[in-house]
Amino acid sequence: MKHIDMLVFGEDWGSHPSSTQHLMKHLISEQEILWVNSLGLRRPKMNVRDMQRLWRKLASILQSSFMEKHNIELNAEINPSIIHPCTIPWPGNKAVGLLNEKLLLKRLLPFVKSSARAPILWTSLPTAVSVIGKLGERASVYYCGDDFSALAGVDHKPIAEMENELARKCTLIVTASEKLAEKFPKEKTFVLPHGVDTNLFGTPAQRANDLPEGPVAGFYGSLADWLDQTLLIEIARTLPHWKFVLIGPIACDIKSLLNEPNIHWLGVKPHSELPRYSQHWDVSLLPFKRNQQIEACNPLKLREYMAAGSPIVTTGFPAVDAYKELITVANDASSFVKALSQIDKSPPTTAHDKQAMQLRVSSESWGNRASELKELLQHL
Known about the structure:
six-stranded parallel β-sheet
């Protein structure tokens, strides 16, 4: 790598299509990007899921070290160069924090020092705060896409302290929603809402073979604590002839959902396969609990659902307010049942409704969002 334009701290590249990954994919053709895989947001627990994740991380670190030792090119045509850091996930522990800082600097400084120019440092993780200002970066950006003080699976207190320190240190703060922006200094905070891959979700895709026959209501994404399981169960019991399809990794106990005969988990699907489901089920669902995290969220799937063109029924939260004329907001089971029953009795979404939704998000593509971001970065 001759030079680095951007040094990016994010989640594991390719693990799931986060907003940072979408944005960086649109910058790769113009920027040399060095991507640093995830720095843990909580201590691992002694369970199967965490142990499997730790093993995968260790395997990635060993593979990366082998590739560098044998001068194997890390970069790929559409991917950034990737670093697998060797750090200990224990936010809040001072001794571990100092050790992680030394390990990161030792790993990254050789790349930075060999670069022809000082990079911009971008982080979407508060756990990178210890190296801000120590890697010779010409500017630093904190990209806040979630409310970490309420996000499930995070050690909230130490992460909140790290985020406050990060906000003080960074040159620029970019948030995914107005609600998130309220936490930070106005003079250096900008809102960049999430975008959508309009080409992927708007291009007709073949129906997935494992999608049951209708009427079908579907949801994809992490099956975590923010999903309102009580609401879903009540809707499913009231509408036994409907099939309720869930797609995504399981991050909480969903046994009560799967005990319902008309609720089906189809597993985890590649992001590129999701239009084969969302374009063909009868209704797209966003059945979220109303909590602090959801109040601040700006879910990627909302715009993806709209680009796919199927009707959307959602609980109410700030991110959906801008699209209320095109979607149905339902805040209790009876309202959901009413909305789904109306869809069941009427013809499928008309071409006009579908086109209206797709037109609404056509200017919100990730390409357009990346162009907005480039303008912000140019000022740095």
